[in-house]
Amino acid sequence: MKTLSHGIYTGERALFGGRELVISHGIFEDGESPLKHSRDILAEHTEFRWKYPLWYSRDITVKNCRFAEGARAGIWYTDDISVSDTAYDAPKGFRRCNGLALENVTIPNALETLWKCRDVRMKNVTAAGDYLAMDCDGMEIDGLTLDGNYAFDGAKNITIRNSRLVTKDAFWNSENVTAVNCFIEGEYLAWNSKNLTLINCTVKSLQGLCFVENLVMKNCRTGDTTLAFEYSTIDAEITGGIDSVKNPSGGTLTADSIGELIMESDRVDVSATKINIREEVK
Length: 282
Prior knowledge:
The protein is mainly β and 282 residues long. The chain contains no helices and 25 strands. The chain has two domains: 1-127, Pectate Lyase C-like; 130-282, no CATH class.
């Protein structure tokens, strides 16, 4: 591979169609699409300052780099890309990518980021911004810290572990999502989703977990959670109490206590849901 070291690249398509390059300690200044249609690229200790740096690329490794805010819409239509130990400050990153790995990455301006990507692995990622990961398919996530609404809308086939999500309307319209050892806070959690499994999670939500088809909860806590499970089919095992429950469609709910149980026979088949309140331990 050819090494390009300490270069400053300007102008549109500065390294268009580059092949088998190591780009070290470089700066991509003004000029759109500097690495468009590139292949077999290693970028390290390099800063991207302008729009659309990596589009239609393949077999890309990015290490210890920075994507400045001006590098908006930075990585689209790119396959088999690994990004690690990198500050990604630009909005609208990672669109329609296949085979994407992010590790030790910060995304403080994650607006409309990670849309319609496939085969995504994320480890120790911190992100802030709305509409993260919309319509993604196939995600393995460990250690995500997220502050931003409407995350994972329409996403499917996701496993997320050891993460902290503060996000209104997370997992809307999603399918086949499993969260393990996570903290999830936000109103209207997971409406209209299908096959949602929460294991050892803490959930805080106003009118959360409603309109869910096949909701499974195992050893979960639900502090500050009200009007939960409306029109959802559930298999929920809650450790501790839940503030209020409204009109689940069916299934089983087990908890230490329920502050308010609303079951309206004119809206749901009350007999379809079995409620188990654990006996108080004295």
